[in-house]
Amino acid sequence: MTHPPPSAPPASGGAAADAAAALAQQAVTVHGLIRSLDEVVAALRGTRVADTWWGPAREALQAALDLERERLQREGWRLESVEIQLRHEQRLLEESAPAGLLP
Amino acid sequence: MSARAHGDAGSGLSVGVGVGIAIEELERLARLAEGSAEGAAHIALRLPPLRTGSSPGRDADLWQAQSSLQRSADRLSDLARALRTAAVLYDGADREAARAIELVASHAAAGAGLVLARLGLLVAPALLTATAAVAAGAALLTPEARVLLADRATVLLSDPRVVELLRAGLSLVDDALLGALGIPPAAVAALGEGGLGVARLDGAAALVGIVAAIAGARGTAPVLIDRVGGDRRRGGESAPVAPPGSLADRIGRLPDAEAPIVIERYTLPDGAPHVEVYIAGTDAHAPLGGEQPWDMASNIALVAEQEASSLQAVRAALAAEGVTAGTSIVFTGYSQGGAIATLLAESGDYATAGLVTIGAPTGGIPVTGAYPAIVIEHRDDLVPVLSGLRRETTAVIVRADALPDAVPTGETLPAHDRERYRATAARADRLDAPSLTDALARLPLPEGEGVRVAYTARRIIAD
Q1: Which residue from B4, B40, B79 is facing A64, i.e. has the nearest CB?
Q2: What is the pTM of this model?
Q3: Which ipTM score applies to this complex?
């Protein structure tokens, strides 16, 4: 997953601008969490259980780790959609706010 | 015995301590699962404040993500716990299973020995005729056909499965011998390595040694040593040398059998003297029991844990360099040199500060000292199996396939090649395996340059 860095929250003035700034801040937090989740997923992806021993137990363990990695990856995508929603709402608020109240 | 890989699974490099060498792999995976669980749980904990109530759909997504991440964290935590439990059980089961298999196999080997001994007199003439026929057939082969036959044998003997089978088989030599002497199989199993441990491979090797000695092998005959550059008034040649910086560096310093002992003298940070000794492997061309003490006769004596000529030579060289029972010393040896290194390290006669061996037949020699010990073996190398199944050891064992793709033709024992062992050591140097990095870190670190000297050795033949 690759994620563009979020823009800094705009200076606020008025309720719409404050709400837009709060949403931007939340988007930054969510973005940070997605990055952390990416790291967990990458660590699990890099895991390879040794080929030379264990037999069925090795396969079961590999399957369990792969399954968890896929689940975490899906949650990463879910959080990405949350970030998109936040940014979209932030933009709508910015557009609706009086021009003088936004930077 | 089982094995595991540390970040190098593709090339089959595995690291572990003692018999249960799978345990480190389980621990590594447990740590990974635990770390991932903590990561997921941490993210799940930071999601609730983001549910502000301003968007029910988004809040629902965040709620689902939180629950799912927490469940993943719990499952990964459970997995880590299960892996740690498995490590404990595996350790016990591995030892018990090995013991049980040995007991059954010991019984079978003794039975086979008994039957073969009884049949021996009947089949001996036929066996002699067959051997003569094979020898005559081999003489009739063209040189190309002989090379082809030798290559086929090399391929077969480089198969890790065949090598492991031989290891187990050689461990049972004693049992077969006892069986041949007429001792009932059940009694042999009780006396053998799986039972009371009275009969061991070194007993069989001692018997072979006696036979070899009768044949004039002189594996334990006395030796003369000489410093390379042999003018004793000038003390021989010496050269400045930097301390070894890695496993591969150590392996690269191992000498050839012409001057089989290299000694480096250093000073430790506290001012105490420190010695590194490097011991060569067997000279494949040396005649049995001849002047070259690094021959098969010494090998047989070493496996029987006798004072082999080559071992005496190393003792003498260390004494000549002023090494005492209080001098810090690290032994590094290849093949026969590894067996010498292990016996000297464990002898109690030296202040052993470390042991590194490659391709050495040391399975039957216990390693129990408090010093860091590293054993590197190729799974497809025939030599380490000559001493049978590995017994008590605290050494870190690094195992790898020397020939993962194809067996090269035209080489004898290609997996035993010292350069291939150096390549394996270089891979081990790059490996992130806690037991190995810990053992390497515990090796003494001398200060500044040292002095390197080499010794030749010659067996004294009384005739």
Answers
A1: B79
A2: 0.56
A3: 0.81
